[in-house]
Request: fold
Amino acid sequence: MTVSVLVVDDSGFFRKRLSEILSATGELQVVATATNGQEALSLVEKHRPDVITMDYEMPVMDGITAVRKIMESRPTPVLMFSSLTYEGARVTLDALEAGAVDFLPKNFEEIARSSSRLQEILRKRLLEVARSHPGRGGGTGAGAGSAPASGSSDTASPAAREQAPRRPATPERRQRSDSRQSATVASEPAESSSGSQRRTAARHYDVVAIGTSTGGPIALQKVLAELPASFPAPIILVQHMPASFTLAFADRLDKLCRIKVRQAQDGDPLEPGVALLAPGGQQMLVEKKGGTGRIRVIPDDGRLNYRPCVDVTFGSIARGYPGKTLALILTGMGADGKEGCRLMKQSGSVVWSQDEKTSVIYGMPMAVAKAGLTDEVLPLDRIAARLIEGVT
Reply:
């Protein structure tokens, strides 16, 4: 069955080139093109496309405003095209917050150098986005994606925040509080490897590790923004995202959260109440020497699809903190994290995953659950409360 596409961009050259590439796949049909957001709104009502590609800088109505209005009137999966710069990251995160599912670089050479490879990546990404669930994961939006050049060779992912008033990053907000939220959590029962349903008991963890891809930025924002400054464990974040985006994403999270969030640097120590985000385009390891955990950031050698890769980071944590880690897999394409979680379980650690109903794309958490590695399956809006309750 052909997937219908609406292409929205003020560049006639870009509209023509993208339409030709997509139409040549045989699985995607461009049913209409628009030169600005206002025109896109009327064409969405007229053609009801399965998926929309959207530029962000256009006359009359910009892409972010258009995405927001589309999500209000006729929610439709949107793939943004963005520049791979800090400013491009900021704008793209705004678009993801408004409801876009994912993004790709507008410069096609940053996606793939060969036309056949470019066509295959665009085909896969749009088909995945068309099957996604815009509006899941809290707020008004879904997730985002990384460019294959810096996040994945096929798929990628990541990006933004739930729709809530932005809290200023004041010293008062940074104050640690001994008060802990109490929450009654009705999580989905998850089957353990033995087939029984269980809920993990509260305990101390040396590390909380979270891996995610498409839909992850909003999911991460929702979870992290609810944690108190006094959260007792260090947090490691692995989000598929281009190198130029992770700093902007970490800065954004830091302004929204009571815990501290920053992009990890080589040599950073693990600290309670501090979340370290893996830098895009590289691989991140956690090493424990002399009782102290520290970050190692190493160049990617090109052999792995994902940069950063959840499996790589989780594997290093499983070796350094056997039986002392809580691993969590959130929404995302593919199966990255499954093997890392397998190592976690073999070392005696605990694994949680997000449920299908609240995942933008139920790929990564499904892979972990189907492999029998999940101790608990949780809806997104319950994860923060479970972390507060279950990590002592």
Observations:
- Residues 115-130 form the longest helix (16 residues).
- The longest strand covers residues 282-289.
- The radius of gyration is 20 Å.
